[in-house]
Amino acid sequence: MGNSNKTYDVVVIGAGHNGLTNAAFLAKSGLDVLVLEKNDYIGGATVSRELEPGWFYSNCSYVCSLFRPEIYQALDLGRHGLEIVPLQGSVTFSQSGDYFGSYHHSEIRRREIARHSQRDADASIRFDADLMKWCRLIRGMLLRTPPDPTSFKPRDFMEFAFLLKKFHELSEDQIYQFIRFFTMSIAEYLEEYFENDLLLAHFSGGSIIGTGLGVYSPGTAYVLLHHAMGDVDGNVGSWGFARGGMGAVSGALASAFQAHGGEIRSGAEVAEINVSGRTATGVTLASGEVIKAKKVVSNLDAQRTFLKVMNEKDVPPDVLTRARNFKIRGSSGKLNIALDGMPKFPTLPEGSPLTLGHMHFTDTLERLERAYDDWKEDRWSADPYTDTLIPSQYDPTVAPPGKHMMSVFVQYCPVEAEGGWTPEKKDAFGKTVIDQINDYSPGFKDMIVHAEVRTPKELEEEVGLTGGNIFQGELTLDQLLFNRPFPGYAQYRGPVRNMYMCSSSNHPGGGVMGAPGANAAREILRDLKRTDTTPEDFGDD
């Protein structure tokens, strides 16, 4: 039990990576900060867990690409043990026995594209340039607070001026292209560049990961951009593994937070944000303990924040309606597999480096769309899209010597499987995924020592992702920038005084990015008139 007479400067609800990022910046500024976590471990979805002796699963989030280097540097996370190893390339296997390898080296990658289509090899130069152009534009907005379009405050005018300046740097044609980009489906967007079915399928995958949309759904082109904004060792678009698994990210953040005097309590579920006179005064735990604080920050998603830990009487009716209508449908599952050795993929040449990257087994847009059709009918996909990785090839700390660990992200998996999940349905879902991998890696099944199968149900129950939505809200145009989570609440402040939000339900969205947590910290420090403590080169000052 804590000191019931103590009043903290800030209480942060949830020790996910955004909550820890937020808390670390606040503690660094000299505030007395307490982080409360319902589980007996920290990290939320950014964890490493030993569920089979000797194997450490990144059993929710599984790859590091979006985490902002500005945050890494400002919190000195390298000193706290965070090491990111760049990931090398990716491959999509074809049912015909061929494959497409997207190699890390750009010239080798272009030669591989030319093996399938010379026209597409030429188009890939234009595609890469265009995608990086949009990445550079959007990345400049990630660590900024969205302007309120209804506000007449000088700061909002200045932020709109910043956005206008960014767009002024584009030509008229580029502005039209950018607007189209936000509203197009990934299939239509890619078909403006490529003709080969295998390439179209390969480049489409990033647009459906974690999203309740299909490759022909409007708005999926932006999701590709969201995943391409990563930066590992200065390489834009690069992905990487955190040495020790994704728990190393939350572990480093927690270490940085505690080095500045911060306090973390696990096994401390928050039941309600306490409000008096339209002002947050602290929280009440599920145990009944009351913790007082001058400011309360929720790292829970928008629905859990407004519909579960806030009393209905403290939330304006229109906000309750918006929270209920917030799009947060889960569409993803996950398998974590302990292997007795390294799987063989006969389609690839002996010693191919392509097993070091993402491996996919869906080779046409039609197969991708059919997988989505299953999800719409509340069925897990009979022929799913999977993002398969074997991080133990880079990181020997996650598996015993000579053994391997495989991470399999699965799209599409419904929140409710035709009336509700049962242990039998969960096993059948896992078998569907394992059978698909075995088709391309004969003998794979015989190498399995242990497999953890996770559906949206587990993601919600264990780490608090409503509906199992990994982005804590769909990344569609109506839920981006000043619309995220909804109009009037995009600047990280809640509906009562001294209450803030820092989860991925806020701008700029999901993924292990840290930006929502950092942006919310900047707003809290601004309200405290402590902007001099905002880290150098970080944010919109």
Strand content: 15-25%
- Which blocks of ≥5 consecutive residues have pLDDT under 50? 231-237, 534-541
Largest sheet: 7 strands, mixed
CATH class of one domain reads Alpha Beta
Helical content band? 25-40%
* Shape verdict: globular
CATH topology of one domain: FAD/NAD(P)-binding domain
Named CATH architecture of one domain: 3-Layer(bba) Sandwich
What is the terminal-to-terminal distance?
40 Å
Please state the structural category. Answer: alpha/beta
What is the typical, i.e. mean, pLDDT? Answer: 90
What does this structure look like?
By secondary structure, the chain is an alpha/beta fold. The chain has a domain at 7-47 and 244-327 and 473-533: FAD/NAD(P)-binding domain (3-Layer(bba) Sandwich), CATH 3.50.50.60. The protein is 34% helix and 18% strand. It is built from 16 helices and 20 strands. The protein has helices spanning 17-28, 69-74, 106-116, 118-142, 154-168, 172-183, 186-191, 197-204, 220-228, 247-259, 302-307, 317-325, 365-376, 423-440, 456-463, 515-527; strands at residues 7-13, 33-36, 49-52, 55-57, 84-86, 90-93, 99-102, 231-232, 235-236, 240-242, 263-265, 270-276, 279-285, 290-298, 332-339, 358-360, 385-389, 404-411, 448-454, 499-501. The strands form 6 sheets. Strands 1, 2, 11, 12, 13, 14 and 20 form a 7-stranded mixed beta sheet that branches. The protein has a 4-stranded antiparallel beta sheet with strand order 17-18-15-19. A hairpin with a 2-residue loop joins strand 3 and strand 4 (55-57). The protein is globular, with a radius of gyration of 23 Å. The protein starts with 6 loop residues before the first strand and ends in a 14-residue tail after the last helix.
